[in-house]
Each structure stands twice: as C-alpha cells, then as structure tokens.
Amino acid sequence: MCYSEYYALNRSNTVRQYYDRFCVHVKHCIHRGIDANCQDYHALDKTMQRLFARHHAKTFPKNILHSVFCCCTESLCNSIDYKEVKEKFGLEKPVNLSLIKCEYLLSISSILLFLLLR
C-alpha cells in the first residue's frame, strides 16, 4: 500500500494546489470495492470515505481539490507524474520546488494499513 500527496504553498503559506494518490494492495481493493480503474473519493465505500476524510480533517480541511484512489498490482504505486497531474487536473509543477510540502507519508500509511487489515 502507498499513499502519496502533493501540494504547493504560495508565498503566504496557504495551499495553492493539491493533488494526492492513495493506493492499497489488490486484495484490499477487492475487499473495499475499488476496481482496477482509479476512482475518486465519492466512488469509495463509506468506510474508506470516512477514513480518508477523518485524516484530512486533521491536516488541511477543505483543501482537498483532487484525489485519486488506485489499485496496485505491486506493493507500491507509480510515483506521481507531473505531466499526468497537469493533464488530468490542470495543476502545474511549482517553479520553486522548496514550496512543495510532502508530509505524513509514514504515519498515514501505518494508520491506513492497520485499519485496512482489521
């Protein structure tokens, strides 16, 4: 399972752009009703919606602009491809990479893995 998030901050330190990708092993996809295609938040079952929303309510509420939930054939998903993100959501790669902030990856993955395996 992997969870990736990308968001860019503007100079006033507020979120300007946000994109994330959440992935689980295939057996968890089947259990949670996620098919082979990537889905958005509203296509997930209610348990996964609550789990995902509960986490983001603690970090950046109302700043989730785009989310993609994908099944993986391996233990890790593909890395975020900026070209794909731009084409799909219209987000652009920030000029200053120091403005990109990626946090919580390990703690989120641990929490989600624990909850998914219950």
Automatic annotation (TrEMBL):
Please, which domain of life does this record's source organism belong to?
Answer: Eukaryota
* The organism's taxonomic lineage, starting at the top: Eukaryota, Metazoa, Ecdysozoa, Nematoda, Chromadorea
The record's InterPro entries line, in alphabetical order, gives:
DUF7773 (IPR056675)
Q: What is this protein called?
A: DUF7773 domain-containing protein
Family annotation (Pfam families): DUF7773
Q: Tell me which residues make up the DUF7773 domain.
A: 1-91
